[in-house]
Amino acid sequence: MTLPRAALAAGLFALPLCADFSYQETARITGGALVGMMKFAGAFSKDARKATEPIESSISIKGNRMLRKSPDNATIIDLDQQTITTIHYTNRTYSVLTFEQMRQQMEAMAAKMKQPQPAPGAEASFDIKVNDTHQHRTIDGVDTHEMILTFLMNAKDQKSGATGGLDMTTDMWIAPNVPGYQEVREFHQRMAQKLTWVPGANPLMNRPDVLKAMTQLYGEQSKLDGMPLESIIRMGGRMDNVPVENGENTNQRQTRSQSSPPPTSVSGALAGALGGRFGLGRKKKQEEPAEGSSGNSSNGQTTSASGSLMEMTSTVTSHNTASVNAAVFDIPAGFAKIEEDLANPGRKRR
To answer: Among 61-75, 200-214, 282-296, which is the least confidently predicted range?
Structure first.
């Protein structure tokens, strides 16, 4: 009897042991131009008002399944079935995307990128790094240290010579040795293996600049040595040497701005801010220098602009290693399955 029991015990220890882990977090927009835009839009849109409110999410891991749930939707990743299920509580619908379908979508995007472009694009370069500030802070009785992830994208238009970029920093207060958090890391590692998310394996990585940036990002992320209990993401944009052309005056510009429909979502406000504040998506017209910008507004001159677009703060409110109820991964009764339009999540494919 002793030998079979010993063999059974040895076999159990040889199997990968995956414990349960769950945590809750709250994310909210705390600064940047986006706040003012969404507050203005809130007078016209319920969705815009909701966008400025805190979003509470719960993340649960049980073996090879992960659930991320918020009040409006949820995402279930099943590594055994190799599926990503998206649940929309408002519409009472759900969709299922297989890993193979995701690969096909990525390959289609890569093929589209290889097609001849009607005009030369911008030359892009990336700078990614993680900096340990050696600063410490106590959060809910836990000692954390500060690490800052910086992602800088610099671009130059080949025709006009205009330069610009996107600056994003993530200021993280990290708690080392949080019991159970290794399950999150190991889950992501297993998912990366299933999806072959490694440098060079993705067809999109055929672009040398993207490959270099992602390789650098993977290397820098490996320096993060614990669970971020608080993260502050700051995003800003800048554009320099933009040619200024004759065109609308100040009154015309104000009239156009007032006649433009207000954004109804974070993505809409984000696009508007990028287009209007940083000169992306349209030609620059003659304007008087605004706050946060410099340059001459006469014809033949150039202008520059920069500013904070968005600040978002995410805080972990609780975490535990208690057993996760398997029922939380089930599709709610009465929900209808749809073939989701990947370009517009939540909408049926036509």
So the answer is: 282-296
Residue ranges per structural domain of the chain: 17-337
* The pair of three-digit structure tokens given for residue 335, joined into one six-digit string: 């929900």
d(CA 46, CA 36): 15
DSSP 8-state code for residue 326: G
- The mean pLDDT value for 116-120 works out to 51
Residue 35 pLDDT greater than 80, yes or no: no
CB 337 within 8 A of CB 83: no
Going by the DSSP 8-state scheme, the letter that residue 279 receives in this structure is -
Burial category of 269 from C-beta neighbours within 10 Å (exposed 0-12, middle 13-18, buried 19 and up): buried
Q: How far apart are CA 231 and CA 316, in angstroms?
A: 9
Taking 70 as the threshold, does the pLDDT of residue 263 lie above it?
no
**pLDDT above 80 for 283:** no
Cβ atoms of residues 90 and 345 within 8 Å = no
Length of the chain: 350
Does the pTM surpass 0.85? The reply is: no
Sign of the four-CA dihedral 62, 64, 68, 72:
negative
Which CATH homologous superfamily contains domain 17-337? Lipoprotein localisation LolA/LolB/LppX (2.50.20.10)
CA distance 68 to 59: 5
Burial 152-182 (b: 16+ CB within 10 A, else e): ebbbbbeeeebbbbbbbbbbbbbbeebebbe
